[in-house]
């Protein structure tokens, strides 16, 4: 039996969401914060880049053609993180998640054997996260995408406990994908907001989840970390040392590195040596193919990037699609 090649990190732009929020109270301030965090030069480059790739982000036929070229059978499609809108009040937040979830499901329904969708949840309103996840699952989505934090809230916040509980009970896939880094203007040049900010945010968010005991209380969570989990997997030794020598770091039952083998990570680390190390510390059964389709910080040939790591054949095929097929309950081919 051969598993399909599955890309778990692919994005979708939703004009319906953009039209919904434009001009609302809080929208402009959020855009101004994003501009400060990224800098004018990065925004200009990103605007042109996204404009040139808009068909890939919105048109199913173009997406499928690009998948064929890359040798990808199935994509796990998540809305662009720009659609989180964690500034929104409860009423607007509900409109955002309902619109995003429904539009994503509609996009994927054009090719249901090849496209699997994820929705969004309002992390700024933990009391509504369960309702949003329920809605995503009712739309036929596999789970939801979430950022590394919400304003004034970390993922370790006890208010998220009902959300984690429902996600574990339902087997919903949670895709951790940061949007924006709280280092703000320190990263507003040379696109440090992404090259440094994204892996830093991944590491901080995962550390909050691990050290706070979320995975001890909810061992069935299916959480996939984008960008190979950022800095944490390859620097977990320092976290382990803190856990061993400092009583204030003992929020989790086991050494932090233990939990790496209970998470999933995409393969998008841009360095074959780092990918090999990720496979070593997390396990070959916990790494999934990821491309960040179709953005410029991704790869147009995720399989070539995976081959460059020189993994054993069985590990290569596990990362190529076997692990994702098991995670997403996909059928294999003869």
From TrEMBL:
Pfam families in the cross-refs: Amidohydro_2 (PF04909)
Domain Amidohydrolase-related: 6-330
Any Gene Ontology biological process: secondary metabolic process
Gene3D superfamilies on file: Metal-dependent hydrolases
GO molecular function: carboxy-lyase activity; hydrolase activity
Record keywords, A-Z: Hydrolase, Lyase
Top-rank lineage group of the source organism: Bacteria
Recorded GO CC terms: cytoplasm
Alphabetized PANTHER family for the sequence: 2-AMINO-3-CARBOXYLMUCONATE-6-SEMIALDEHYDE DECARBOXYLASE, ISO-OROTATE DECARBOXYLASE (EUROFUNG)
Protein name: Amidohydrolase
């Amino acid at each position: 039996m051969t598993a399909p090649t599955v890309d778990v990190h692919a994005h979708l732009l939703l004009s319906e969401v953009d039209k919904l929020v434009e001009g609302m109270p809080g929208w402009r301030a959020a855009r101004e914060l994003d501009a400060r965090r990224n800098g004018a030069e990065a925004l200009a480059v990103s605007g042109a880049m996204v404009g040139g790739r808009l068909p890939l982000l919105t048109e199913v036929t173009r997406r499928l053609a690009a998948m064929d070229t890359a040798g990808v059978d199935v994509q796990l499609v998540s809305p662009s993180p720009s659609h989180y809108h964690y500034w929104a009040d409860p009423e607007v937040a509900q409109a955002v998640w309902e619109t995003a979830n429904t539009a994503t499901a509609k996009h994927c329904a054009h090719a249901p054997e090849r496209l699997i969708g994820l929705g969004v949840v309002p992390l700024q309103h933990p009391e509504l996260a369960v309702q949003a996840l329920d809605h995503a699952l009712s739309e036929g989505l596999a789970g939801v995408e979430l950022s590394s934090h919400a304003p004034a809230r970390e993922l370790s916040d006890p208010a998220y406990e009902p959300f984690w509980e429902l996600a574990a009970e339902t087997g919903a896939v949670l895709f951790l994908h940061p949007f924006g880094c709280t280092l703000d203007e320190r990263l507003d040049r040379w696109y440090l907001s992404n090259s440094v900010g994204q892996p830093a945010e991944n590491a901080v968010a995962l550390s909050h989840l691990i050290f706070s005991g979320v995975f001890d209380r909810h061992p069935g969570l299916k959480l996939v970390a984008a960008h190979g989990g950022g800095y944490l997997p390859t620097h977990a030794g320092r976290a382990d040392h803190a856990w061993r020598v400092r009583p204030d770091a003992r929020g989790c039952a086991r050494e932090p590195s233990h939990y790496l083998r209970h998470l999933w990570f995409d393969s998008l680390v841009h360095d074959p040596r780092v990918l090999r190390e990720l496979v070593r510390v997390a396990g070959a059964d916990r790494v999934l193919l990821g491309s960040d389709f179709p953005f410029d910080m991704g790869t147009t040939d995720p399989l070539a990037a995976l081959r460059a790591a020189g993994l054993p054949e069985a590990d290569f095929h596990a990362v190529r699609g076997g692990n994702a097929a098991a995670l997403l309950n996909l059928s294999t081919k003869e």
